[in-house]
Design goal:
Oligomer: single chain
Largest sheet: 3 strands, antiparallel
Shape: globular
Number of strands: 3
Order of helices and strands: HEEEH
Structural class: alpha+beta
Helix content: 25-40%
């Protein structure tokens, strides 16, 4: 999955950029924080795990 597609999905569901980490960007919905890898292509299994974990 493309990183920009995952970020677009997060932002459409109320998540917003919090800050940059070492190799990740952190996104928050106000209560939870999720680290998104800073790669142009995110492993499909990782992307599905993040989506399922966040309930999107």
């Amino acid at each position: 999955m493309k990183r920009r597609d995952l970020i677009k999905l997060l932002e459409e569901n109320g998540w917003r950029f919090k800050r940059s980490g070492g190799n990740h960007d952190l996104y928050t919905d106000g209560n939870r924080v999720e680290a998104i890898p800073r790669h142009s292509e995110i492993n499909e299994m990782l992307a599905k795990t993040i989506i399922k974990k966040l309930g999107l």
